[in-house]
Amino acid sequence: MRILQLSDTHLRGDNSLSFGVVDTRRCLNEAMAHLKSLTQQPDVIVVTGDLADSGDMHAYHILHDELVALGLPVYAVPGNHDRRDRMREVMPQWCPAKPDIAPYLCYTVEQDNLRMIMMDSMSPGSHSGHFPAQTGDWLERELAKRPQTPTLLFMHHPPFATGMGAMDEPFENVERLAGIAGRNPQLRLCFGHMHRPIVTMWQGRVAMTAPAVSMQIDLDLSPEGGDTFRMETPGYLLHHFDNGIWNSHICQIAVQATFAGPYPFAGSVNPTQ
C-alpha cells in the first residue's frame, strides 16, 4: 500500500500571489506533472490541510479537478487557512465525515490490513491546533474498533514542539491527545502545517510533518523562527506499508528551486467560517 501525502498547497483561485510572493497555481501544476510521471503510482492521496489560501472557493474547484484527473482516491483534512463548508461543498467525497461528528471533518478510511484516521484540528479564525472533547471522544471510539490494526493518523497541526518558536503555539487539549497516542502503539502520526519535513518520536510514536507543495518555512531554530519562508524544493511524503512494515519516504518534486527569501507570511488570513 502506497499512501502519498501532500500538504499546504495554499492555492489561490484569483491568479494573485500567495503571501504576495508565491505563484501557487504554478506550484500545483509542477506537482501534478511530477505525480503523473511517477513510474509507481500511489494507491491513495491524502492532503493534510491548507488546501486553499484563505478558504478561496475557486481554488478548491481547481485543486479538485487537478487531483481527480489522476484517477486515484483522494482524502483531505482542513487546515487553518481552509473553510470546512466550502470543502464539503466542492469535494464531499474527499472528506466523508458523518453527521455525528459535525462540524468537524473527521472520518476513518478502512483497508483490510491498515487504517487511515483523518482528524480535523482547526478552529475558525485560529492559526493553532485544536483537539476539543468532541473529536477526542470520536478518536477514542474509532481506535477501539480495531485496536490491533496498523493506523496512520493524519492531521494538519502537529502537537509536538519543533524548535521554531513562532510555529510552536499552544495546542488545545494536547495532554489528552498525548494520552491517546501513548495508549495506542499501532499509531503513526502524520501532519502538515510546518512547510518542511520533520521527524520525531512523540509519546513513543513516530511522528512527522510533510514538506509543502508551495513554499517551505525557513529553518530558523530561534524563539522568533518559523515566521518566514523560502522557495526551496517542494515535496511530499510517501508512506509505504508492506508485509507489516511501515516506511515513510521524504520525496522531492522535480523543479528548479530558486531558494529565494526569506519572505514574511503576510497578506493571507485564517478564515472565521
From TrEMBL:
Annotated family: Belongs to the cyclic nucleotide phosphodiesterase class-III family.
Sample GO molecular function, one term: cyclic-nucleotide phosphodiesterase activity
Keyword Amino-acid biosynthesis: no
PANTHER family: CYCLIC NUCLEOTIDE PHOSPHODIESTERASE CBUA0032-RELATED, PHOSPHOHYDROLASE
Keyword terms: Hydrolase, Iron, Metal-binding
Name assigned to this protein: Phosphodiesterase
Residues in Calcineurin-like phosphoesterase domain copies: 1-197
